[in-house]
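Onboarding guide, step 5: your first structure request.
Type a short instruction followed by the sequence, for example:

Predict the 3D structure of this protein.
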Amino acid sequence: MTFPRHLLTDDEDLVLDLRPHWWQIAPPASLLLLATVVGVVALATSWWGPVDYVIGILWIGALLYFVANYMKWSTTNFVVTNERVISRTGVVSKTGIEIPLDRINTVFFNQSIFERMIGAGDLGIESAGEGGRQQFSDIRKPNIVQNEIYRQVEGLEDRRLQRLGRAAAGGSAASPAELSIPEQIEKLDQLRRQGVVTEEEFQAKKRELLDRM
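The system replies with structure tokens like these:
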């Protein structure tokens, strides 16, 4: 099941929409396969008796266990957009978490040797939000997902600096070409003193403007 597009904001673009790695449903699938083989052998070697009924009940249990895990797997989304990271799961009732990109501090992943062979692993995100650190299991190619998240964080910061540059230049009232670089820095400093721009954003944009001189 793909992530619903109507849950995205107007300026938000979907970058990654991933279900968990297939390894997540491998154990219940293996159990169902084993129960099926045992059931077939039991039917082929004897007529229905007490043992066969027990095997039949175990097979039904294995089937239900597989269906429950498959439904959870198919309705779990790990999504990366150009504004946030989203994790959602559930068929009827939904649970999820959203992490804005501008709150992400560190993204790390962990893979065992076997997970590296099959392209799976765990992904962790440390953020400035209340959750602090979130762990996501059975992510497909977590190293690639990590790089993509960092790329989107950088893209978000670039767009923010561009907006700050337009605001420092006076927005629609005056284009950047109508103001000198010292004047743009002065307007940017005014925004910093007003609390609109943080010290880090001011210094980054100031360096960018000075490099143009």
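Each response can be followed by summary notes, for example: The two ends are 52 Å apart (CA to CA).
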